[in-house]
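Researcher: Structure prediction, please.
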Amino acid sequence: MYDTLFSPFRVRGMELKNRIVLPAMGTKFAGDDKMVNDQLIDYHVARVKGGTGLSIVEVSSVHTPSAPKRFLSISEDCYIPGMKRLTDAIHAAGGKAGIQLWQGGLAAAGMDKTVQVLIPSDMGPIPGITREQMAQVVECFGKAAARAAKAGFDCVEFHCAHNYLPHSFLSGGINHRTDEYGGSFENRARFPLECIRAIRANLPEEMPLLMRIDAHDDYLPGGLTLEEVVEFCRLAAQAGVDVLDVSRGNILTAGLKFEVPPIDLPRGFNIDNAARIRRETGLPTIGVGRINEPEMAEKILEEGKVDLVVIGRAQLADPEFCNKCREGRLEDIDYCVGCNQGCYDGFADPSVPHITCLRNPALGRERECALHPTAHPRTVLIAGGGVAGMEAAITLKQLGHHPILCEATGELGGQFLLAGKAPRKQEMETAARAMGEKARRLGVEIRLNTPVTPELIEEIKPDAVFNCIGAEPLVPDIPGSDLPCVADSHDVLGGRVRPAGNVVVVGGGLVGMETAEYLAQRGCKVTDLEMGPEYCADMGIPRKICVTESIHASGINPVTKVRITAIEPGRVLGESEGKPVEFACDWAVIAIGARSRDGQELEKASARVGAQYRVLGDASKARRALNATREAFDAALALDKED
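Model: Predicted structure follows.
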């Protein structure tokens, strides 16, 4: 199955067993010492055992003064032993290892405020890099390549994309130097080519050099064009690059959405760019961009558009993705849904220690979260069949317990199923249904149309009760909130209420804006009111960009700094900056958040029968699905540890 995807590929002295590349995704697994640790090794080994062909270790700093904390570094010899331990582990598991050599440029400033920021030319208070510093960085790239070879890597990748220093030199929209390193394309290409030559000169002949490059500079005035990128790739090949890894993403513009593309973007959105670059340069090329299904990967390769494919977040979501594809076990795959909640948002948030995954709560905890059969099987009554309930049931069953999954409605999925009704989020509905099917295949006892009541608890007398009953929409305590022309977002997205005409959506966060889009697609004229100074404030940046673009394209009118005071037939009343305002409407839709459902009676009944009691997901506090699956997974693992 998928013969091309699982065919070998050779470049110089490196032969890969298949065409799948685990890309250099930032994890923050490295500590402040920037060293390889067991957490990073376990992460890579799990995916090598899962069948990936090439594992590229994440961005590794080549230049000590600009190396951020919690990022890997290969800027000194002291990092070689840890890197060697990592490559040995990858090789022992049957894989090949690459490492991405990196100087962060402007982007490093947002990662660690203490680092030296190097940029091509002056930008506000940040001075442009000096000629002496440039020479140092070129030398650092060369020395880092030598260390990579000594550490046992099979290849290295030069990062020349995403506004990092080499890309910033190449881009006319960023590089405003007036010497021989700025101005013309030839001048702008000079510094990154010097870096490439230094790397190639320090690698053994049999060791391939890859280069990550943006297809073009999205939305950046004066930025790189596809034609310039093609020409640079030809020059890079002459300087020693063997394989192109064609990406997209620009932190200075809305093009950031392409760097870690969310669910809003179509699968394979960048492949045609990669195919053109491959065709016009003749170089082996890696395709990137939401390739999270084997059928798509196989088709892209069969058509000769690229030679290898990046399958990144899909392997975060399921480390066995490659094996399951090769063996035809597609129904067993836990597919990435492009939510970005644990990966991009977790990476970008300095308060989050490392990346996580909604679909895979064991990410970054592979060793401690290994599933071992329980010695004490227990009966666990689970109230609620949303993602928390399903995750708990699946994990408990895999551990050898007897979960009884009860759902008050006629189908599993809860709010995750509802989220899939919003524009561009069908994959979430698909994932919700797939979780239910997985629970059924495992043999979980599922009872639909069965709310968990105190009487049911007393009848079953379980060893534990997991309260996963979720949350319900918040309704503001204002006059008119109970009018027949007022609905909540759940009723609208669930299709139980169908507003028409002029609609005012109250709430400009994630749910509010998705509801507004949903209504606009159905012909409504929508105004969205947000009390705060910013709409989409609870979204990660890539999703926020996509939703904001769609809002404006759909003709939705977002209004901020509005506090609702009353709803009357035909209008919504409020105040904005101390002044009264009103908005005409046929319908008002409330989307201001949710509150946990009351589970006190379940807790009391659990105590009466001596059952352990846990409140998980939105039943504890209304948050993201990421929190729900993590809590449910951990509760299932911890069951044997409870008294």
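Model: The longest strand covers residues 54-61.
Researcher: Thanks, that helps.
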